[in-house]
Structure formats: structure tokens, C-alpha cells
Amino acid sequence: MNIKNLIEQTGWKLATEKADLNTEIEGVYCGDLLSWVMGNGEPGQAWITVQVHMNIVAVAKLREFSCILIADNANLTPEIIDRAEGEEIAIIETGIPVFESARKLIELGV
Amino acid sequence: MAVILHEEFKVERNDYSNAGKISSRVKDFLKQIGVNPKTLRRIAVACYEAEINLVIHSDGGMVYMDVMDDGSIQLTFEDVGPGIPDLEKALTPGFSTASNEARNLGFGAGMGLPNIKRVSDGFDITSSPEGTTLKLSFTDRNE
Hints:
The complex is a heterodimer of chains A (110) and B (143).
Chain A: H1 3-10, E1 13-14, E2 28-30, H2 34-40, E3 46-49, H3 55-63, E4 67-70, H4 78-86, E5 90-93, H5 98-107
Parallel strand pairs in A: 2-3, 3-4, 4-5
Antiparallel strand pairs in A: 1-5
Chain B: E1 3-11, H1 21-32, H2 37-57, E2 61-68, E3 73-79, H3 87-90, H4 100-104, H5 112-119, E4 122-128, E5 131-138
Antiparallel strand pairs in B: 1-2, 2-3, 3-5, 4-5
């Protein structure tokens, strides 16, 4: 499944305008402690977090995640979106808790 | 062994919003010269963690990247203090002295140095109140 399919099938909101929607999603990682995510995430995964800070973009870029999924309506700022667009990392807001977001992805077969 | 490519970067104390940028640049440089993707990922993890350590724990410092003529990569992180009082504890997974400010931003899991040690081929750290030097080396390989 790619990012475009995910958005179509969930109705989740794409926060970044500049992003490659054809990027394939290969698995999911959930976590908010950045070192934990950095140490355990795998390339291609969608990363679900409630951490909203500039540094999530660096983590996603360096860890080569396919996208960042912001759960629970955590407060995404324009600065983070700008940084993400600069690094070509897609950020999607799920609007539901981490667990529900992950369950939805499982239902979709990610 | 001779150095064939050298880059250096300055890290400012508590500059949370720029943390990770140096690691991105290091990764981009090494990608351009054809370093293996799996080696790149190990270097990215180590460089990011060490860069963050300088931001959240040190009074600032420098990152030096050297590509050697045998294809290995060396990263050196030098700061100007205040030093790590107990290196053994600092290397224990889960142990952290990060500030509340840093923890609120998702840092301070106590996994920084353990992550670095796990992914690097060479790991050497010395510390005193005048500063800490972390020297890492990586052999480029596709595994």
C-alpha cells in the first residue's frame, strides 16, 4: 500500500503538501521516545506518534520511514510541516488514538 | 590510512530545533560517494544519537567526518564539557540524565550511547570535566 491508497482508504488528513504519495508503506512502528524509535524502527515503516516536535522529521528522514502518522490530534505546527516538506517526508494526521490508528492499519493489511 | 574526505560541523548547546541536521548532511555526503545503504543506516543512527547527546548534554562542540582510503568511515564528536561523571552508567540502556525539557521533547530514553555502541564497528569514548570525545568507526559492508 502506498501513501495515496492509505489516505483514500482512511480519510486521514495529509498535512504536508509536498510529498511523494507513491511511497510504499512497509509495516508500522509506534513510539514517542526518539532514541527508541531510532534504534528499533525499520526503513519503509509508517511511524505512529503523538510526539510533535521538529525533531520527528530528522528521525523519520534518517530512519527512512515512509511517513509520519500523528495520532490523537497532537498539535502539529506549521514549522514542523515546513521542515517535513523540505525533507520530503509525508505527515498524516489520523485524528484518532495510537492504538486505533494501528488497528486501522492492520485492518487494511499494512 | 589516509583521509580522502573530511567535513566538520558545529553543534550548539540546547539547539533542539536543528538537532539532526548534521546527521542528515553526513548521511547525504556518504550516500553521494556510494556508501552501502545498510552501512548508511548504521551511521545515521549513531550520528543522530551522538549529535543529540551534544545538544542535550554538552556545552556545545564539533562533529568531524572522515572517509579513509580503505573505505572506512570515522566520526568524531568533541565537546567542551561538562563531561560524563560515570561512563559505565551512561552506557547502561535506560539510564538517562536528560533534563525535563529534553524529556518532554521525546529525548532522554537512555538509549543513546547503547544504540551507538550497537551499530558501530569501533567505539571509543573518553570524558573529563573539560570535555568528552567519542570516536566511532564504520566498515562499509552490505550486511
